[in-house]
Write a structure and sequence with these properties.
Layout (H helix, E strand, L loop, with lengths): L7 E9 L1 E7 L4 E6 L5 E3 L5 E5 L5 E11 L6 E8 L7
Antiparallel strand pairs: 1-6, 2-5, 2-7, 3-4, 3-6
Length: 89
């Protein structure tokens, strides 16, 4: 687990048509932004931080922006990408 400060940003590039981010963010405000589109403020749902689907198979950028942890612990565990090939995630 990593203790993050206010307004922490992390981004990565991925090739595919969907991405799911997993971790723990109890009562923590955070946004997820794909391809510089307006950010969506999300809440953790059973270990899923975000599930973005329906993207065109291409190179994408995803940003995870922690707005405020209020002294709580935010944990990013992994990302899973659908690369558009049967049997591979």
């Amino acid at each position: 687990m990593v203790r993050l400060l206010k307004l922490t940003r992390s981004h990565t590039h991925f090739q595919g048509s969907s991405v799911s981010l997993y971790g723990s963010a109890p009562q923590i405000r955070y946004n997820v932004q794909v391809d510089n589109q307006p950010a969506q403020e999300l809440t953790e749902n059973g270990g899923v931080l975000a599930a973005i689907t329906g993207l065109k198979p291409a190179l994408h950028t995803i940003k995870l922006i922690v707005i405020d942890t209020s002294g709580l612990t935010f944990s990013f565990q992994r990302a899973e990408f659908d690369i558009g090939m049967r049997g591979y995630v």
